[in-house]
Amino acid sequence: MDVDTRLLRSFAAVCEEGQLTAAAARLFVSQPTLTKQIRQLETLLGVELFERSRYGMTPTRAGLALAAHADALMAGWEEALRATRAAAAEHGSTLRVGFEGGIINVMTQRTVADFARRMPGWQVELRQNNWFDPTSGLATGEIDLTLWHAPPSLARRYGVAALGEEPRCVALPAGHRLAGRAVIDFEELLDEPFVAIPHESGHWRDYWLAVRERGGRPVRIGAVAHNTDEWLAAVVCGQGVGFAPETMSRLAPREDVAYRPVRGLSPSQVGLYWPKDRTPTPAMAAFVLSCRATVGLGKRVLEHAGAPGADPGDRPQDRT
Fold first, then answer.
1. In its keyword annotation, does this UniProt entry include Transcription (predicted)?
2. Which of 117, 145, 213, 294 is the most exposed place for a label (fewest CB within 10 A)?
3. 92-166+268-294 and 168-263: identical CATH topology
């Protein structure tokens, strides 16, 4: 029987948290997605793993038996991955880097060439982030690093090598009533329909809908997109507006889309992220240095000393 390690990781989180809400927040997935994963694992094993009540989730006897082995199973798999990567690194290998659709142009041929100079025998494999996986493949080990525009608070959950700070802008159809404005106040967008990304994207959906800045005011959803092309198409067709990295306005301009700065919307921290429980490899550190040498993104953010690619003279930054 084959069981996805992601299902075991979700099971362990529910066991430790005792409830779906807290476990979902810890895993950066939506509660419906986590519920589906637990049900899928129960179906695969043919047993009920939890007793469900209004007070939370309590492991059954079968659940307790699985929990007693789950940590060792996951630890063994992580050790196998580390050993595999270490063996491959001795003679060169592939560094897998995730990127956000629409801003891949920030990484150029210069970035890859600089990395090849620093790590002879290595190559970079670029993979577009999957909107149905909030970790973009980091949790499953499908990628080593991912480029994110993210809130600074995400550094509490992930290791991060910051590349810069960049505003979020709003994308409007060219004929929109606000398209002629040079700058738009956030409050003017509160009643607009928005193009959202899927519920499965977890906290990313809330971030790109600016839920925190809304102060409890509900979002009108005009359309749901499953990738960048669908998102842009929905904006062009007038199904909604959407927030995007300012980079898109410079690197992916379109005559039928108006990108405008938004006053009152917090900026993103742009960086390369990896799981906090994984030690960065020399290849990861080299790629960070290559990005810093070739990528220009808004305001520079200083690194903690000792982080991959950090200059020993950099001053630590506040990441609260």
1. yes
2. 117
3. yes
